Amino acid sequence: MSTTTKAKSEPMTDLNPRSTTYEFMGPPGAFLVSFGVPFMTYLLYFGCSEESGGCLPPLQSIPDRFVEALSDKTFWASLWDTEASLIYLGWYAFCVVAWAVLPGDWVEGVTMRTGEKKKYKINAFSTFLLAMGISCGYIFRNGPESFTFLYQKWTGFITASLIMSLVQAFYVYASSYRPGALLALGGNSGNFIYDWFIGRELNPSIGSFDIKSFNELRPGLILWVLVNMSMVCEQAVRRGGFENVTDSMWLVFAFQTWYVVDALYNEPAIFTTMDITTDGFGFMLAVGDLTWVPFVYSLQARYLVFKPLELGPLRAAGVLGFNILGYYIFRDANGEKNDFRNGRNPKNLKYFTTSTGSKLLTSGWWGRSRHPNYFGDLLMALAWSLPTGFDTPITYFYVVYFAVLLIHRQRRDDENCEKKYGNDWETYKKLVPYRIIPYVY
Predict the structure, then answer these.
(1) Per residue in 211-255, pLDDT tens?
(2) Which of 12, 138, 161, 167 has the CA that lies 20 to 30 A from 419?
(3) How far apart are CA 210 and CA 203, in angstroms?
(4) DSSP assignment of 380-391
């Protein structure tokens, strides 16, 4: 199966110009984030777990315990778990094999600078169904206690995913120097640390296997659901069966599973996102996909294992309604955009035509803000944290982080659009003045 449809060719020296601008404050920022993301992932565990004494642990004990841990060889040894590493490696291999053997259509992505269109195999949702079927069958046969190993070996799995992220980051960086590689416009600065972090090659592949799109949707995203399932099983063991699992845990599990299902079912939509069309694949995306998503996004479910909370019918209904509202905005806004991009306009939405002929929506959700889908995303993020109550701010870390991430993406999108559309973008901003939250921001 050919992975590209070729339309024209240009000298690679013209297609891969030297990057002239930096993100994340350049190489120093890339260096700090490369250490900061693993550090924060471990910190969210040691700062919010049974073993540490709560969420947060007693504040007066943190400095002494931190210094003691760093100087203790036993602590460093505890971060490695051979069994967890083998399970993680097996999981990643399962995802690769599923991609290869499960049937799926091949669809074309957007036109690249070479004039080519890369082809992608669509079977992430099938991979999810297979993984869930095997996992549920295993739990049904062996009981919930058989699937608590993800909770019990947490730091071991974090370490295994970090090693996988590092290996891939170094591999794709080295392979980006082969002749004919199409580089990301923002990842060819010539600085090793920055390019390794941000991603030098646009679409690193092994044959027809596209590494970036595979990691975006399969091993980390599906593992997020399996991690949450392990948290449900751990709570079931402690509370005497699935019938005693708290409503708060079920809500978190349902909300986040539905979010993943939606992403996997609508897999073709990812091929028009900035991650795929613009960003290279380096340590930033590798560690985000493989470590951050499954082991940070699951913080609420992990917290509810050792801090179970019953919401009751009224509060549960309120949280459910809040999540449904966020999802409705997210999905309806994306539906309007996708219809319009594909030449359909069933709602007869108004639009602004630029001097280059591009059309920008100015009504519907896209008339309320320039990124209404981000607004829906933020509402859902808050709904995922509300079931944990208000005893600790730590379980709301995801909301704060996600807000910062989306604002960064919004600003980067606006900068790119300003370069692309020029004065027309200023006119468009007057028609749609709000960035994300209508009438607020």
Answers:
(1) 999 999 999 999 999 999 999 999 999 999 999 999 999 999 999
(2) 12
(3) 7
(4) HHHHHHGGG-SS
* CA 219/CA 205 separation, integer angstroms: 16
* CB neighbours of residue 148 within 10 Å: 20
- d(C-alpha 379, C-alpha 383), whole Å: 6
* pLDDT at residue 382, as a whole number: 96
- Of 425, 409, 339, which is closest to residue 375 (Cα–Cα)? 409
Decide: helix, strand or coil at residue 191.
Answer: coil
Q: Which of left, alpha, beta for 181 (phi over 0: left; psi -120 to 50: alpha)?
A: beta
CA dist 359 → 190, 222, 369 (Å): 36, 36, 16
Residues 207 and 96: beta-carbon distance below 8 Å:
no
Please count the other Cβ atoms lying within 10 Å of the Cβ belonging to residue 98.
20
Q: What is the mean pLDDT of the chain?
A: 91
Asked if residue 280 lies in contact with residue 186, where contact means CB atoms within 8 angstroms, the answer is yes
Would you place residue 4 in the very low, low, confident or very high pLDDT band (cuts 50, 70, 90)? low
Do strands 105-111 and 209-210 pair parallel, antiparallel, or not at all (unpaired)?
A: unpaired
Distance (Å) of CA 31 to CA 25, 37, 142, 280: 10, 10, 45, 17
Using the predicted structure, report yes or no on whether residue 428 has a pLDDT greater than 80.
Answer: yes
Q: In this structure, what DSSP letter does residue 145 have?
A: G
| Percent of the chain whose predicted confidence (pLDDT) is above 70 | 96
CB burial class (10 A; 0-12, 13-18, 19+) of residue 112?
middle
Closest CA to 186 of 274, 256, 116: 274
Distance CA 20, CA 187 (A): 10
Question: Alpha-carbon distance 332 to 372, whole Å?
Answer: 9
Q: What is the pTM of this model?
A: 0.89
Angle ∠(21,215,8) on CA atoms, nearest 5:
60
- Contact (CB, 8 A) for 214 and 102: no
DSSP state for residue 290 in the 8-state scheme: I
Report the distance separating Cα 258 and Cα 211, nearest Å.
25
Q: How far is 114 from 164, CA to CA, in rounded Å?
A: 30
Contacts (Cβ under 8 Å, ≥6 apart) of 31: 193, 197
**Which uninterrupted H or E stretch holds 253?**
helix 247-265
* pLDDT tens sequence across 15-73: 888 988 888 889 999 999 999 999 999 999 988 988 777 787 766 666 777 777 777 88
Beta bridge pairs of residue 54: 49
137-to-110, 134, 145, 251, 440 alpha-carbon distances in Å? 39, 5, 13, 22, 47
Interacting residues of 62 by C-beta distance below 8 A, sequence separation 6+: 47, 56
